[in-house]
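Lecture notes, unit on protein representations.

Consider one protein chain, 208 amino acids long.
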Amino acid sequence: MAFTLTLEPDIRDMMPISIDLRPLPTMTGEEFFLFCQANRDLQIERTARGEIIVRAPAGGETGGRNANLVIDLGNWARADKSGVVFASSTGFDLPNGATRSPDAAWVRRERLAQLTANQKRKFLPLCPDFIIELRSATDSLRTVQDKMTEWIANGVQLGWLLDPTDRSVYVYRPGQAMEQLQNAVTVSAEPVLLGFVLDLAAIWNPGF
């Protein structure tokens, strides 16, 4: 299957593009992995229906916020040692057939230990225990909320959707209603991540 996608310069300020490749043959997991490796400048996801979602590189504010997320979560994880943190470029093959990439993720070490060396080199065939999604200015709130629901349905034990536009944190847990925290200063990941509390100051204001 030959497929070429060209993004014009101004598309970096637009919403993500969803591409339905039907009636072209569906890419296998290996083919999709190679497709993503050939387009490393883009963040590419695949829905459970086989649609390809393409995002251009993040803008400065979103990139700064993402970096702060990974730094804070990573510092906690290094001290805690019970799990591993993954950044936004990491793909996860979910049980429903989708391949998704959260802005930050954490997986327990005992689950990662069950993977083969080859599985660890590619998109991880599991759903993270904890994820964070950061809404950018071009993201539809409904679309990101639907993605959070998908994460929970596939096995995430705790998920946060951070929305800098109105300083809201949407907290998702299995079997519970979504909780919205308005103008929160911190948010705790207890009891899934013992002792991890995110200071939201650097998320609401990335520092430049």
